[in-house]
Here is the input.
Amino acid sequence: MTSDWSLRDRLKWLSSNKIIETEKRTSPHTTPFPSTEANNSGDRAMPTAFVVGLRPWRRNLKPWLPNRRIYRIGNKSTIASLLLACILCVYRKADVYVWGFKHPPFIDTFCSKFGIRLIRLEDGFVRSVYLGRQGVAPLSICFDETGIYFDPSRPSDLESIIQSYNFEADHALMERAERCLKQFIEQGFSKYNASPERDVLDIYGPKKGKRILVLGQVEGDMSLVKGLTHTIDNNELVRIAVRENPGAHIIYKPHPEVLHRTRTEPPQSDPNDVSDICQILEQDIALADAFATIDHVYTMTSLAGFEALVRGIKVTCLGAPFYAGWGATDDRQPVPRRTALRSPLEIFAAAYILYPRYFDIRSGRKVELEEALELLHRLRSSELRSGGAIAYEGVAEPHGHRRGNVP
Here is the structure.
């Protein structure tokens, strides 16, 4: 657990763990040498950061990592893993940045053993109008040195904030959180904000009793892999909601990729298999609209559950998302580390103000949540999406509608 290992010690460790010995010679034209993003200034004293295996739009991290020499390296080949390991043997003071858990499998143990800082990145909870897979740059990114917020098997920076921060003493923070949450709810914001506005009362029909919304997710998503100790699929989640609420109106909102069958790997459960016990939302409906007249939400680990919680809706969590375990939700999977009792507003303050970083790529400025919400409002309201969109590597937000959905 120390950083004073010699180069020989590090190479010996790599060899003993069979990270080096499996390598074969590769043509220099195909060897994935790291590319540099910010080392043209000639300032060799700048800290070094290695960014591993990010998609093209995620690679432009210069605004997020100022005053660093940034090197990128792929993570899809064994030679790339070898190259990264060897580089880390040389750069003793380097930091490693990875997206979630998309990195060579040895990285965790290697960085821990040799005292190399490993920082996991993930989209923040106020991200953009359109989806990240469309090449749209994020308004916010979470940087976590302890774990990552969707993995309850280990602590994370967000969990530590929620557990330990003195919210009661920080009146200014809580006033900010209250104002921002009010704006978030009144403007119908979500993590993504492209879904059209709809009058869901025409879809749901007259309300005659308790109404429950079941939030589907993409099965196999890392938030489910990490957040569930007992694997269930979306259809089983629906069946649980039906069993526990006899006579209630059960509405199932599948994830768009499941509904439209654009995600085939891993295989997804078929919503039609539960069509006899619930109403299936087949329309693209913004979460803010979908929550109308809902009394209770069931989810496994979806962020959408928290968006329901801050709107005053009861939420049952079958897994352990970041907002579960604090006394604000009906939890079926305990997290013993989480002992503090927190309100939805305090969790909002931690997750939306204290934990992520916000950045306006157009102006080149770091911003706070308040400015990010105003920027999101302008982007969503604009009739010229492509002309005013935030973009990375020339990819801008496409034309579309309004309001939001959380995958």
Summary: The domain at 194-350 is CATH 3.40.50 (Rossmann fold). The two ends are 37 Å apart (CA to CA). The longest helix spans residues 171-186. DSSP finds 15 helices and 14 strands in the chain.
